Structures are given as C-alpha cells and as structure tokens.
Amino acid sequence: MCGHQVGFCHRCVALYTSIVAAGLLFGLLRRRIRPISLKIGGLLLLPILIDGLTHMADDLTRLGFRGGGDAIGSLNFWLRMLTGALAGVVMLLAVYPRVERDLHGAAKCAEQA
C-alpha cells in the first residue's frame, strides 16, 4: 500500500473547529453576547502569535528548544490546540457580534434606500 504524507496542523484544526463551534454558540446566544474590546481581543490572540513565531523560529534554526516532538499529547500538541481554540473564542467574543451589528446596519440602510 502506497501512502502519501500530508501536512496536518493541530493548531489549524483547533482554530477552524473552534471558529465553527463559536459560530454555532453565537447563533444560540447572540442576544446575550456583547462584543469585547478589540484591544482585549488582540491580547487574547498574543498566545497564538507567540506559539506560531516560536514554532517558526525553531523550524528555521533547528535548535530544538520546543522539544517533545509533535505527537498527540506532547507539549507542542497541547500548545497548538489551546492557542488555536483561544483564537476561536476571540471570534465569538470580539468578531461575530461586530459582524452581526454591521450586517444589521447595512440591511436597514438598504431598506431605507
């Protein structure tokens, strides 16, 4: 059997899964969720930025300071999963409420025109 290696990123899986889950949750709670400030949203995205940059630096320098490999259950796995999921939470708290507000505003303008 010939297998082909494919790229698989735990961080991306956690990110996209949490964005979908946040969207579904937002659909249920949209009237109760008020957007957090963009500054707080940016601060909540710092862990994924730091995780991605240290991963890239480790890949470029091959120093191995991230250690532990990429296996499920390793430190790298959990860092990637947690930072990806946190980015989805930011979508729920900072982005989705703003998009809905702006779409409602655009719909009202279109109705009046």
Helix content: over 70%
In whole angstroms, the N-to-C terminal distance is 63 Å
The average pLDDT is 84
Main sheet summary: none
Number of domains: 1
Uncertain ranges: none
Tell me how many strands there are.
0
The rough form would be described as: elongated
- What share of residues are in beta strands? under 5%
The number of helical segments is 3
String of helices and strands? HHH
What structural class is derived from the secondary structure elements?
Answer: mainly alpha
Rg, alpha carbons: 18 Å
Can you characterise this structure?
The chain has one domain. It is mostly helical and 113 residues long. The protein is built from three helices and no strands.
Write the layout of secondary structure elements.
Layout: H1 10-29, H2 38-61, H3 75-112
Helix pairs in contact: 1-3, 2-3
Quick tags:
single chain, 113 residues, mainly alpha, elongated
How would you summarize this macromolecular structure in one to three sentences?
With 113 residues, this protein is mostly helical. It contains three helices and no strands. The termini are far apart.
